[in-house]
Amino acid sequence: MGIAMVMIGFLFVLVLLCSALLRWNEMRYNKTNLPPGTMGWPIFGETTEFLKQGPDFMRNQRLRYGSFFKSHLLGCPTLVSMDTEINRYILKNESKGLVPGYPQSMLDILGTCNMAAVHGSSHRLMRGSLLSLISSTMMRDHILPKVDYFMRSYLGQWSELENVDIQDKSKNMAFLSSLSQIAGNLRKPLVEEFKNEFFKLVVGTLSVPIDLPGTNYRCGIQARKNIDRLLSELMQERKDSGETFTDMLGYLMKKDDNRYPLTDEEIRDQVVTILYSGYETVSTTSMMALKYLHDHPKALEELRREHLAIRERKRPDEPLDLEDVKSMKFTRAVIFETSRLATIVNGVLRKTTRDLEINGYLIPKGWRIYVYTREINYDTNLYKDPLIFNPWRWMVSISWSHKTHVLCLEVGQGFALERN
């Protein structure tokens, strides 16, 4: 009886303590003129619910608080906007008190020189360096031939497998393809070490920034240190060899005729950015495209017809060129439709650099704003039967603004490709 009373008393105190913590955290952010919402637990906020429930968490919060609400996600007080007009305003006014605002864990792990962390002249330098690596000349002479060679080799290995885990193979394909562009002809043990550390790094970027042993954040930080060590050793080895390399790392390290000279630290951050930025989007899009094509034989047949027509014009060992890729209209439609239906990119994050008034609310300096665009992809005013996989919808003449809902978001006078 005595033990039972002690247990009941302990549970009662625990409930009171939890309630007090939740109340205290709400009071911390209970400033006047902020949108409605909840802030969850101290430090953790509502990160667990956000990561586990995903779109369901967003829909539930919108039902309770409307399309513009506050929360605490990934270690940061955050405003979530699911309002089309507010989203448009935020993306058109980036230079007016708003900058890219990715979570602190992502900034810590990807490096202080990555494009999401720098602004002004540093951002222009890093952006110019990245764009120079994917120019039309680079695409024609280096990137496409290497991708063609890699995919032939990679897919050729599947014939030896009894079962193929598409999710696992897609993730490996996305990473290894990018790594082959950055540093070709790496030894297999080094590639495996890169891959193992990179996968830990990815998990760490989407975690609460608590630097304690065993946490995903600590593992991500350590993985980044290990990747820096591997890159530093590789770069020093190349400097000592005196050879000229034509992969991306070779161009980043080039001293002569380089419009965007970078320090060794900036080069390492740029390499990690390239690997990271395309990994999740490419692997998920590839996996979901395979699923949709499997479920829709007519679309698969049309895709095969387009590819076989291109192949008939070429020798068996002749790689695809830029004109071949440009002619793949139905393939592009499949990619658009997969990106729309699977919603690979849910939105983008911005950070306030000063107190900012939006929609009648005063947003404090340092808060994140999550521009959530997922629901636009299922808007019946934009897409007929939006839950049906229909690549042919992209083959008809529709306004460019519809296509930008899938892959691009309007920013100022141009368009910027965003990750997550």
UniProtKB/TrEMBL annotation:
Q: What's one GO BP annotation on this UniProt entry?
A: brassinosteroid homeostasis
List the SUPFAM superfamilies hit by this protein, alphabetically. Answer: Cytochrome P450 (SSF48264)
Residues passing through the membrane, by range: none
Query: Which key words are in the record?
Result: Heme, Iron, Metal-binding, Signal
Molecular function in Gene Ontology: heme binding; iron ion binding; monooxygenase activity; oxidoreductase activity, acting on paired donors, with incorporation or reduction of molecular oxygen
| Signal peptide interval | 1-20
InterPro entries in the record, alphabetically? Cyt_P450 (IPR001128), Cyt_P450_E_grp-IV (IPR002403), Cyt_P450_sf (IPR036396)
Top-rank taxon, per record: Eukaryota
- Which family does the record claim for this protein? Belongs to the cytochrome P450 family.
Q: What is this protein called?
A: Cytochrome P450 85A1 isoform X2
